[in-house]
Specification:
By secondary structure, the chain is of the alpha+beta class. It is 53% helix and 15% strand. The strands form 3 sheets. It has a 6-stranded mixed barrel. Strands 14-15-19-16-18-17 form a 6-stranded mixed beta barrel. Strands 2-11-1-12 form a 4-stranded antiparallel β-sheet.
Length: 981
């Protein structure tokens, strides 16, 4: 009877609920969400913080990549010499078959300006023109020779002049003396006298002044023009395209003739009035019309680079060239080095992107596992609650909807805040298709949306599927007694095959040879897959030591050790795998990123050393003349200098067979035609003081060798020499005569080294400077700390006698000073390399942060249960010290497994993947990558040990803090009757 009344009561209660007003049921969703948030505000805030952090990283990553790629493209173009980036449209002068009036009219400024405006309007996007630095005009195809005796002639050779009618001269220069040139409208091919202006630098070196008259002859020696200098001008922006597209118009230069020894002559530019252009028709110099367009980089973005490269190729030899010829003439030609610059940028960017995507995969996987783990732990903690809802008639859709709603209320605002923070933190400098600095917004929105979707779906997907079937209580799901299912075994074997395939593909092809645009996905996921497989293996092995350690611990006198191992073994197998998985992937990602950064740093140190050869290098330009006699003594007195090594370098020494050898007489096979042609190539001869130089080579680690190698003498006074491999292969081991400006010597190569401080990046032949006739040094190699280039330059210049301007007037050229520290810092100035390096630095920090988050989530999930256990054990006499020890020992197995496994897996991952990852493009610029060679991963001890040690320290700190907090709380709540914890 009682049982019947009870059943009726339950039925009546259900009926009453069913008969509730419809409006009340429609309002039930809001109270549910609000009630859940009020019940656990701390968990809601923690989950929101995790989503915000993850959404920020997901949104910031594509924006950071866009930012440094856009900055890299702009810097690549602006940092390249103007002569290699300006777009040149040239057309030869009209042929003699054209009537002369038409030829003259085609050279008039109005005709040139019309072509200029049409060309600017017709240039294809994304190529944009900087109108302020662009110019047009007519120039001589071949320079004219100055025949006046008063012009400077360094080696008795008269100077040559290039004549140009550059447009808008008044807007780009200031008249310092005289006036700008002018010409009447009647200038034609019969005009023999014109006016010109020159820059102040040209006037100073060529001894020109206002009123000077230059008589210029063509290549046939015929008098072509007389040019009167009417003004001296100072360029406004001398490094801009207007003045630097043809440097001779701005500053004269000494041109070396192909003679030995080299002879020099002056070459300079003369600026004619635009109306004087027809006069160049009578100079027989094959004059040409030109239009120079300076590229505008302010609006270029990384997304424009591929299309920009295609458009430039079309302008040089494609449909766009035909359009330019319709405007400028059928023989017009477009020339530019901008395509090479963009192509080099794209190649470097592609190589770097393939390595960066590896870091993206690692952090993305860690973040996804952390979010899934958070949802899984929340679902595990609410198993009883959700089972009760299901038993009371809750539908799977209704329960899932409520769980989705309560997570969406937290996740969506947090993801939006993370997106907003990423937009504010990672932004460009303006320009770029309506977005700041060319940084696109849409990829960031996609990343934050993916995080929000995963965060919202994690809890329903983990909590709802177990509710599909009603299950009776089946006892504890202890980790120590768990047995993997067949489905899990199949899934793990599948992941194992993927990991093996990924590692094999990476080792065979590498990241730099991937066929995909941003790297093959399987190759990029190799570190994550290796960590995943290692985590699954460790999860399988984890119960074994717990089972075997629990039995000996039971026989110990104290109960703390046994209780700790028993508690660790009773962890749920459903919630123990994800924390360990997250920890291992996070630690592996941090170790991999740290190894990448370590490899980059080592490569840059090596590249800087190969560029300088010592801590500082002082030399004359191209080592053409010796340094002042007192330079070494003056440099030694500079603060910070530890040692100075002087060397004599001759870049154009001649090698010939030694007298008396078979090669010298032509007998035998010792001197074939091929050997003769090889000896015709110049040799870089370096004279050094053996003791000081070998000490320097040993200190810098660049090809050290015993000093006695150079001091020894062979039969007949033949000098022993140290050579680079290429030089040794060319000259062989037979005695060779070396002819240079330092004297004539006979050497035999006895030692081969790949590098040497005096010529770290080129071939060389080292000899004892005592055997040279002229051993005065051309280069000083300095070692020391905190060296200053200005002080070194001042010390060198102070040692030389005063000199007057001009090459032949006496004195040494200004010394060139290179610092190892500045060369090293220059590698970090590249936006591509430095941007990718920052991403890997963030990857290391994010990996460590997610490892901490995973550990904290795992420990805090079990915090209520541990608090209740401590309270109950304290009623049975457990002391505070024993409580701290119990919690510490309980957390130790998992933390120790994660830390030790993280170190082992990180080391194994680096060893497995190192052969397939080349960091040369990521470490240095393309020009230095070939010198440095392959740069592979190197194990960084700190990136392995610090995160793992942090896991252990944090686990102990959390356990101690939890024990302290449990001791301060009252025991009433924890000792409630019926509590299932």
């Amino acid at each position: 009877m009682t049982r019947t009344r009870t059943r009726i009561g339950i039925h009546s209660s259900v009926q009453t609920d069913a008969q509730a007003p419809k409006a009340s049921s429609s309002r039930a969703v809001a109270p549910w969400v609000r009630t859940r948030l009020r019940t656990a505000p701390g968990a809601a805030v923690a989950f929101g913080a995790l989503v915000l952090l993850t959404a920020f990283l997901a949104a910031a990553f594509p924006r950071a990549v866009d930012a440094y790629e856009t900055d890299g493209l702009r810097r690549e173009i602006t940092g390249t010499p103007v002569t290699d980036t300006v777009l040149r449209l040239t057309a030869p002068q009209a042929g003699l078959e054209i009537p002369e009036p038409q030829r003259v009219e085609a050279m008039r400024p109005d005709a040139l300006e019309a072509v200029y405006r049409q060309t600017v309007a017709s240039l294809p996007g994304p190529l944009r023109v900087d109108l302020a630095d662009s110019a047009y005009g007519v120039r001589t195809g071949e320079p004219l020779t100055g025949t006046d005796d008063w012009l400077p002639r360094p080696d008795g050779i008269p100077p040559r002049f290039t004549l140009a009618t550059q447009s808008e001269l008044a807007a780009h220069a200031t008249v310092r003396s005289g006036r700008l040139p002018s010409a009447g409208q009647g200038a034609d091919a019969r005009t023999k006298e014109v006016e010109a202006a020159v820059t102040t630098a040209t006037a100073r070196e060529l001894r020109l002044r206002v009123g000077s008259v230059l008589r210029l002859s063509d290549r046939y020696g015929t008098q072509a023009l007389s040019v009167r200098i009417t003004g001296l001008v100072e360029p406004h922006r001398p490094n801009g395209s207007y003045w630097s597209a043809e440097p001779l118009l701005r500053v004269p230069g000494l041109a070396a003739l192909p003679s030995r020894p080299p002879m020099f002559r002056w070459e300079a530019g003369l600026l004619l009035a635009p109306e004087a252009a027809p006069a160049l028709l009578g100079t027989r110099t094959d004059s040409e019309k030109y239009w120079r367009f300076a590229p505008a980089t302010g609006e270029l973005t990384a997304a424009d680079a591929p299309e920009l490269g295609r458009r430039i190729a079309s302008l040089e030899s494609g449909p766009d060239l035909l359009r330019m010829r319709e405007i400028a003439g059928g023989n017009a030609v477009v020339e530019t080095g901008l395509g090479t610059v963009v192509g080099s940028h794209l190649a470097t960017r592609e190589a770097i992107s393939r390595i960066v995507v590896v870091a993206a995969f690692g952090i993305g996987t860690v973040a996804a596992v952390a979010l899934a783990m958070a949802g899984g732990l929340i679902a595990a903690g609410r198993t009883a609650e959700l089972a009760l809802l299901r038993s009371r008639g809750g539908s799977l859709l209704g329960i899932g909807g409520r769980l989705l709603a309560e997570t969406a209320v937290i996740a969506l605002p947090a993801a939006g805040a993370g997106l907003l923070l990423a937009v504010l933190v990672v932004d460009g400098d303006g320009g770029g298709n309506g977005s700041g600095g060319g940084v696109r917004l849409l990829p960031a929105v996609y990343g934050a949306s993916a995080v929000a979707l995963l965060a919202c779906a994690a809890l329903p997907l983990r909590a709802v599927p177990p509710l599909r079937r009603a299950r009776a209580y089946g006892g504890r799901d202890d980790l120590a007694a768990a047995r993997p299912s067949r489905r899990r075994t199949v899934a793990e074997l599948t992941l194992l095959l993927l990991a093996v395939a990924s590692v094999a593909a990476l080792r065979r092809r590498g990241t730099s040879n991937s066929s995909a645009g941003a790297g093959d996905l399987l190759v990029s996921a190799a570190p994550v897959l290796v960590a995943l497989i290692a985590a699954l293996v460790l999860v399988r092995l984890y119960p074994l030591p717990l089972r075997h350690a629990a039995r000996p611990a039971a026989r110990l006198r104290g109960a703390v050790g046994f209780l700790a191992l028993a508690r660790a073994g009773r962890s749920s197998s459903a919630t123990a795998a994800l924390p360990l998985l997250a920890l291992l992937i996070a630690l592996t990602t941090a170790a991999f990123g740290g190894s990448v950064l370590s490899g980059i740093a080592d490569a840059r140190d090596r590249a800087a050393l190969l560029a300088v050869g010592a801590d500082a290098r002082i030399s004359t330009p191209n080592d053409t003349v010796p340094l002042p006699p007192g330079a070494e003594r003056s440099v030694r007195q500079v603060e910070g200098v530890r040692d100075v090594t002087s060397v004599r370098i001759d870049l154009v020494a001649d090698a010939a067979p030694a007298a008396g050898t078979e090669a010298a007489t032509g007998a035998g096979a010792g001197f074939t035609t091929g050997a003769a042609s090889a000896l015709e190539k110049p040799v870089t001869l370096i004279g050094v003081e053996p003791d000081a130089y070998t000490r320097l080579a040993r200190q810098m680690g660049l090809g050290p060798f015993p000093a006695g190698v150079l001091k020894a003498r062979g039969p007949g006074g033949v000098l022993n020499a140290v050579a680079s491999p290429a030089t040794a292969e060319r000259l062989g081991t037979a005695p060779r005569r070396i002819l240079s400006s330092a004297g004539e010597i006979t050497v035999r190569i006895t030692t081969v080294r790949s590098h040497t401080p005096a010529a770290p990046r080129s071939d060389f032949l080292l000899v004892d400077s005592a055997a040279l006739t002229a051993a005065n040094p051309t280069t000083l190699l300095v070692t020391g700390e905190r060296l200053d280039d200005e002080e070194l330059r001042a010390a060198t210049e102070g040692a030389q006698a005063p000199r007057t301007p001009g090459r032949s007037e006496g004195g040494s050229p200004d010394p060139e000073v290179s610092l190892l520290s500045e060369e090293r810092a220059a590698f970090t100035a590249s936006p591509l390399q430095s941007g990718a390096e920052r991403i890997y630095a963030v990857a290391v920090l994010a990996g460590a942060a997610y490892a901490v988050i995973a550990l904290l989530l795992s420990l805090l999930h079990a915090a209520p249960e541990r608090t209740a256990l401590l309270t109950r054990l304290r009623t049975m006499g457990l002391t505070t010290r024993q409580g701290r020890l119990l919690l510490g020992l309980e957390a130790l197995p998992q933390a120790l497994l994660a830390a030790g496994g993280g170190i082992l897996v990180g080391w194994a991952t680096i060893r497995l993947l190192a052969p397939g990852i080349d960091l040369a493009q990521l470490a240095v610029a393309s020009a230095s990558a070939s010198v440095v060679g392959d740069v592979s991963l190197s194990t960084d001890v700190w990136s392995l040990a610090l995160p793992a040690g942090g896991v252990l320290v944090l686990a102990g700190a959390v356990a101690a803090g939890q024990a302290w907090w449990a001791g301060r709380r009252g025991s009433i709540t924890e000792l409630r009757a019926g509590d299932t914890r």
